[in-house]
Structure formats: structure tokens, C-alpha cells
Amino acid sequence: MKLTTFALGLAAATLLGSSAVQAADAQFIGSTVYRTGPYAPGGIPWADGFADYVNLLSERDGGINGVPLELEECDTAYNTDKGVECYERLKDKGSTGMPAVMPLSTGITYALLDRVKADKIPLLTAGYGRADAADGTVFPYIFNPPATYWGGADVAIQYIASEFGGTENLKGKKIALVYHDSAYGKEPINTLKALAEQHGYKLSLFPVPHPGLEQKSTWLKIGRQLRPDYVIMYGWGVMNATAIKEAAAVNYPRDKFIGIWWTGNEQDVIPAGKAAIGYKALQFNAIGADFPVHQDIIKYLYENGKGSAKSPDIVGQAAYNRGLQQAVIVTEAIRAAMNIYGNAPVTGEQVAHALDSFDLNAERLKALGLEGLMEPIKLSCSDHQGGGHAQVTQWDGKTWQSITDWITPNEEMLRAMYEESAAAYAKEQGITPRSCD
Amino acid sequence: MFYREAGQFKTSYQADQAIFPIRQDLYAYIAFLAVAFIGVPLLASDYFLSTLMLPFLVLALAAIGLNILTGYAGQLSLGTGGFMATGAFAAYKLSTAFPDMHLIIVFLLSGLITAGVGIFFGIPSLRIKGFYLAVATLASQFFLIWMFNKFGWFTNYSASGVISAPPRTVFGDFYITGPQAAPVTKYLFCLSFVVLLALLAKNLTRSNIGRKWMAIRDMDIAAEIIGIPMLKTKLIAFAVSSFYCGIAGAFWAFLYTGSVEPLAFDVNRSFQVLFMIIIGGLGSIMGSFLGAAFMVLLPIFLTNAPHMVGVEISVSTLSHLEAMVFGVLIIFFLIVEPHGLARLWQIFKEKMRLWPFPH
Fold it and tell me: For domain A150-283, which architecture applies?
């Protein structure tokens, strides 16, 4: 007994004393992912996409601008406590610390808001997190390209309007929002309400408590009572497949059912089987492995047994491409910082500065072999969002088929909402917005 | 050899009833406090302070709260997460509505508000016992989280339902919340609060009310027959327990993460705290700390350990391994000592008194 206690104590003592040794001249990239836990099915392809792109740069180009890369993953299991621990563990690694953090969870994003400000490390949230962080004057260290939840809601309404033949036909229509009852799911409500006032549709809200396995009554109400003209879903994890199956059970047409990007994974529709055919989802990236970058990933990584995913079939999946896109944004931001500060490992503060004038244009995307996979992103000191384009895809039983062009959200209206919300946050937190002139 | 009480005579009732009747224990305790207050801030890194010590202290506080209710008064509760959320949201509403109010007052008031909520949800305990009470308190857990999610007033109508701690100082320029707050200040503030509250809890359990709680725990009918007022005593237990949990929740939101959504206090949090007191030891303040250390620090150590000794395993394998080893350790400790780590510590001390000559 005494021995065990002693051994434990000894082990704890070693924990405090040691620290990892790292190469001095490599650029460290920390990646917080969830390969385990309840949401792992969606998290694994994302993590693989991210790791593959960074490894591709190492294998093919020898790093960024000749600076070798060192990637370290930390598993959060989509748990906020673990995510914070991961961030604190990774932030000082490498010679210059972590250049940027991508928490991959709205909960972790909120927990890191204050920390990244103190540590001067940019926080990148691709398609999740705080939408009002688009206002760079209040959130100097937070960036949310390529899209926000509010922009996604606007794109969904634009698409629904086009289905009915124009925004004027939205008047009197019934639209239902089925959402995960958490910070994430509640994000689009204000946008949808504002748009309802503008266009005259009737919005009904259906919160689904976490984890979302029980939706019978929700869908009975939707399918039998309310019979809305369209259903929008902000779901997550197991909730998505359940919702699609319940929609089929009450015979609600799946092609009148559109979800945000986090409901548009293969892992969300395959478990629902045939019920999912016709279901639609927004995506801020194209799907499929037909892009030059994927060919390079197969050639340099998978053919040499260096790929992250268990099988090359994962390459090109929705979540995989999303992870890859996030890696592109981060590595291009690091490259931009190196172009300003010289070709050596860069700090978070330098990357944040580079992101304030980040310009990932069509030409650059083409050179990277990403043409068509994502839209150009242009950020400024005050605009930390940069576009917000999304497209609608439809599940045909095997793959996601793109059914629209890129749709641009109504930036004018959203910008005003971002600024209003950011100003309220700034007031509460006593932040003086920085000047961007 | 060193742990002998020979020659320590107690000449007053006061000395006889001290928390640490053995002088070595008192010295060890003072030395331990000195390390915690002086040694740790001087030597530890920010990582150690802000990701290990803060959650450990906050959850230890919550564990003390639950231990008072479950370990001392015998009322099984699964509402800890809900009470922590109440504390967090109360602190948020108070600090945003009254920006000039000192944060210590905010924390104490949010504890009192949570105590009120705890009394309300404790009323059924008069009729419901054991596992049935656990289900009743589980209802409070779900109700409270639902309420904070549902009504925008609690979050000042934030779109996402997330609350963020406004930056506040404890005195002068020493920020304890917000981005300017140094981990050391947060740690020392939290530590002082936790030490004071733990001392208070220890003395409460040694007092008249503590003995009443234990009487109810051990046999409520007998306790009633000897004249212990059931309703009052049980409700006081709920109030005190919720007070502690409320402050722990406010600390979690304000000192540890800075901003939280209600889901941070979901039923998993309640289970986590319950496991802490089961593993640490029911009916022991010391056990609350040991349990919190076990539940918070051990998983982090397990994830870091292979990396430190130079073994490279993929993060997913590591995560699964962590869960497995952690599970095995829980089973191991419960088999070796069903009464928790605190009991283990007690046995260890008893053996030490005889060591090295057991006969």
C-alpha cells in the first residue's frame, strides 16, 4: 500500500520536473483535435485532413518558405476542460510557441477567449465559435474565416428563398429551426429572427437537448402539426442522423430539410441509410478528392505510407476537406507572417499581425492546387471574417453533390449585427475597441 | 519513529478537541500550507498553476460541498452541476449588474443565492430517501441547466448563451479575472478562499450541526427520536452544500475558464464530483481534496506520461489508454479500500505510529 502511494507521488514529481525537448529551428504547429470521445466519428477525418496538409508541406516543400514544420496533436475528446489543458500544454512549445490555435469546439473557443488575448496567440475558428468575433476592433486575436453561424443562417434563407422563386415569396411561409440546445445551436436564432422580420416568414424553434437521441416528439410536432415549408438544422454528432431518421419516420420530405456544415458529414448521413437521400447541407468547402492538392496528398503521403487516415478513402470527405482547409488558412497565415518577419519560426503575435492583412486570393489558391475547393479569403484589421461564402450540397446516397454555386451572405446586414453584438461584449468586458485606421 | 505522540499531554478540553490532536500533524499541515502559498507560486509554471491547480482547487471545493451533503448528512445528490451553474450565473449577473461590487462580495452573494436554490430543491429530501432522492436532485440538475439555457435574462441576452467574466481586481492592480489576470494571482486568491472554506467546513462537521448531520446519515429514525429536527437539519445541509458548490461554480466560470456555457455544468460534472467524493472518501474533508486530485490530476498525468519517458504513441491511442488505465485505477483503489483514499491515508498514519517496531 505504502509502495503504491509512494510510486504515485514519485510519478507526480516526475511530471512536474520534465519538459519536452524540441528542435530549435522548426516552426511548431499545435493542433487540438478530437480523435476520441462521443464526437470522434466527425473529428477523426477533420484531424486527418489537417495533419495530411501540414505533412504534405513538409514532404513536398520541406516546410513553409524552407522552415521545417513540427506538428503536434493533442486530443480534447471535445471536452472543454481537456481542451484548455491542451492549449496550455502546447502554447509554449517549439522555439516560438504556438503560432495559432484552432480549438475545433465552440465550448473550448469560449474558454480560450481571454487566454489567447493574454498570450497573444491568434484563435482561428473555421465555421464555429463566436460569430461577432468578425469585428476585429473588439477581438484583435480572434479570426473566423471562412464562415460564421450567422452567415450560414443567412445563406440557408437565401437558398430557401430561391427554392420558392425569390425572397418576396417567403412571406407567410413556415420555417422551423431544429437546434442543439447549446451555445452552438443558439447562434443562428437572432439572425433567423431578423430575417423573419425582413421577409415575413414564420420561424418556429425546436431545441433538442444534448445529446439528441430523443427527437420523437419534436418531429411529430414538425411532421404532423406544424408542417413547415422548410426545416433548418443546427445539429451535432449523433443528433443529426437521429433527426434525419425521425424526419423520414414522420414522412417529412428530406429535400425540404437543410443543415449547417456540421450536419453535413458523411458520418451524419450514412447511419441514416436510405432515409438520408435528398437531405441537404451547407458546406464552406467543396467535397471530393478531385483537386490537385488531393493528388499530391495521395502521391507524397499515402503511397509512401505516411498518410494520417487509416485508408485513403477518407481523403476528400466533407470533414476531411474542412480540416485541410483549416490547415491551408493556418499555414498560409504563417507564410504571410514569414514574408513580413523573415523566414524563421514566427510567434503568435506575428501571425496575428499577418492575419490582419491576410489575402488568400484566387491566384494563390490555384497555385496551391485548391481552386474550387474553397473561396478566396481577404481579412482586414476590422474584418476578421472575410467572405462567408457557402454552397448547398445534397446527399444522393453515396456522395454529397453540390447543387448551387457559392452563395455570399448579406454582409451589410450581418456586419451591423456583428458590430452590435461585439459592442455589447466590449461594454460588458470594459474593452476599448482598437482603432483600425 | 518520528510519528509518536509520546510526551504530548493534553491539559485542556480545547487541546483535546483540536483538529490536529497530534503535534506532527499540525506541523505537517503548516508546512503543507507554506508550500502551497509560497513554494508553489514561486516554483510552478503557468501551465501548472492554471491548468492543474485551479481546476483541482475549484473541484475540491465542489467536492467539499457535496461531501457535506452526501458524506456527512447522507443525502445522495446528483444536482452538483446545477448548483455550480447557479453560482456561476449568479456571479455573472451580480458582477455585470453592479460593476462596482467587489468580487469577493460577488462570490459570497452568489454562494448565498445558490444556498437559497439548494434549500428549495432540498425540500423533497424530507420525504424521499436514498436513490429516490438522487433522482429528485437529478431533476434539479436538468431544470437549472434548462432554465439558464432558456431565459436570455441570465446571460444578458447573449446570442449563444455564453457568459464571460468581466475583468475585476481583488485590490490595487491585481486582476483575478479577465485577460490581464496572472495565473499566480488567480491561484493565490482561489487557494485562500478554498483553505478558509475548507477550515470552516471541517469545523462545521465537528460542531453540533455536524453531529446532527451524521446522526441523520447513520439512522434518520433514531435521530428523529432523540429530537433532531429533520427538516431544519437536512435543509441546512442542503444550504451549506449548495453554498460551497455555488462558489465553486462561480470560481470555475470566473477564475478557471473565464467564460462558460451552461453545458459546462451538465450532468457529467455532477457525476465527476460524486466520483471524487466516492474515491476520496465519503464524510471526509481531506478525502474531498484527495478525490479531486485523483480525478483532475491523474488523467492529465496519464496523457503526459508516455511522452515524458520518450514513448511516442498516437494521440487517439493515448486517449483511449488514459481512459482504460484511469478506469483500472478506480477499480483498484475501490477494491483495496472501499472507503476511499482518505481511509487509506488514515491506515497509513496508524501504521506510521508503530513504525518501525510494530510490536
Answer: 3-Layer(aba) Sandwich (3.40)
The whole-number pLDDT of residue B75 equals 93
Note whether A31 contacts B: Cβ–Cβ < 8 A. Answer: no
Is residue A19 scored above 70 in pLDDT?
Answer: no
The pTM of the full predicted model, rounded to 2 decimals, is 0.88
CA A342 to chain centroid: 30
User: Residues of A192-214 as b/e, b for ≥16 C-beta within 10 angstroms?
Assistant: bebbbeebebebeebbbbbebee
A13: Cα separation from own chain's centroid: 38
Host H or E run for residue A217: helix A216-220
**pLDDT, position B213:** 96
Cβ separation of B305 and A189 shorter than 8 Å?
Answer: no
Cα distances (Å, whole numbers) of residue A326 to A85, A291, A311: 22, 16, 21
Per domain, the residue ranges of chain A are 23-147+288-391, 150-283
C-alpha cell at A323: 480540416
CB A375 within 8 A of CB A430: no
Interface predicted TM-score (ipTM): 0.85
> Does the structure show a pLDDT above 60 at A3?
no
| Rounded CA separation A320/A311 (Å) | 12
Q: A96 is written with which cell numbers? A: 516560438
Which among B297, B257, B284, B261 is positioned nearest to B340, based on CA atoms?
B284
β strands within A341-390, DSSP E = 359-360, 377-378
Q: Tell me: the pLDDT tens digits for A128-171?
A: 988 999 999 999 999 999 999 999 999 999 999 999 999 999 99
At residue A226 the predicted structure's pLDDT band, cuts being 50, 70 and 90, is very high
Q: How confident is the model at residue A14 (pLDDT cuts 50, 70, 90)?
A: very low
pLDDT recorded at residue B1:
67
For chain B, give the mean pLDDT: 91
pLDDT at A15: 43
Residues in chain B, pLDDT under 50:
none
Q: Do B164 and A110 lie within an 8 Å CB cutoff?
A: yes
Flag whether residue A398 sits within 8 Å of chain B, measured between CB atoms.
no
Do the Cβ atoms of A190 and B96 come within 8 Å? no
CA-based nearest residue in chain B for residue A141: B179
CATH code for the domain defined by A23-147+288-391: 3.40.50.2300
Locate the chain B residue with the closest alpha carbon to A109. Answer: B259
Q: Which helix (H) or strand (E) holds A233?
A: strand A230-234
Residues 136-175 of A with CB under 8 A from B: none
Q: How far apart are CA B108 and CA A410, in angstroms?
A: 46
Taking alpha carbons only, the member of A139, A151, A144 closest to residue A125 is A144
pLDDT at position A24:
55
Beta bridge pairs of residue A143: A124
Of B117, B103, B74, B288, nearest to B197 by C-alpha is: B288
The answer to whether A130 and A141 are in contact (CB under 8 A) is no
Question: Among A218, A198, A195, which Cα is nearest to A208's?
Answer: A218
**Domain A23-147+288-391 matches domain A150-283 at the CATH topology level:** yes
Query: Which residues, listed in sequence order, are joined to residue A178 by a DSSP beta bridge?
Result: A206, A233
Helix A2-17 × helix B285-308 angle, to 10°? 60
| CA B73/CA B213 separation, integer angstroms | 4
- Helix, strand and coil percent figures for chain A, each rounded to 5: 50, 15, 35
